[in-house]
Amino acid sequence: MRARQLLQTAALGLIAALSFNLSAQADEHGRGSRVPPLPEYKQECAACHVAFPPGLLSAASWQRVMSTLPRHYGTDASLDPAMQAKLSSWLTANAGSGKRVTDAPPEDRITRTPWFVREHREVSATTWKLPAVKSAANCGACHQGADQGDFSEHSVRVPR
Fold this sequence. Notes:
Layout: H1 2-28, H2 39-45, H3 59-67, H4 81-93, H5 114-119, H6 125-128
């Protein structure tokens, strides 16, 4: 009877370890626990680009992005102070904290983070320049579920 209990305990431990490992892998590849987008965030930010999941940048990066909205990557994306404060608070509260976001990418660009570059290394420079793609920031051009926060490789359709 004691051997059976030890075997059950070992099996539960193995299942827990595997679950933790799969969860960590899911988070590393952007398919982990997704934060439902704040409606105002989708309304304001997704009007021009995909509403990037807040976990893709650190809190410090989001603070810099939100504090420079009048010069938002070449565009004036200014918001009224109350809306800016609300979105900034939500983004920093839900920012990434894992190894994916330990270093701020150049210009706080998600597309220049080491993990993004690594995940997209097989995408040619020609593909990024296609009229339907235009840039690496246009996630929805290839990731069919990008507007829902789904960047799974299973739903990738590269335009021609």
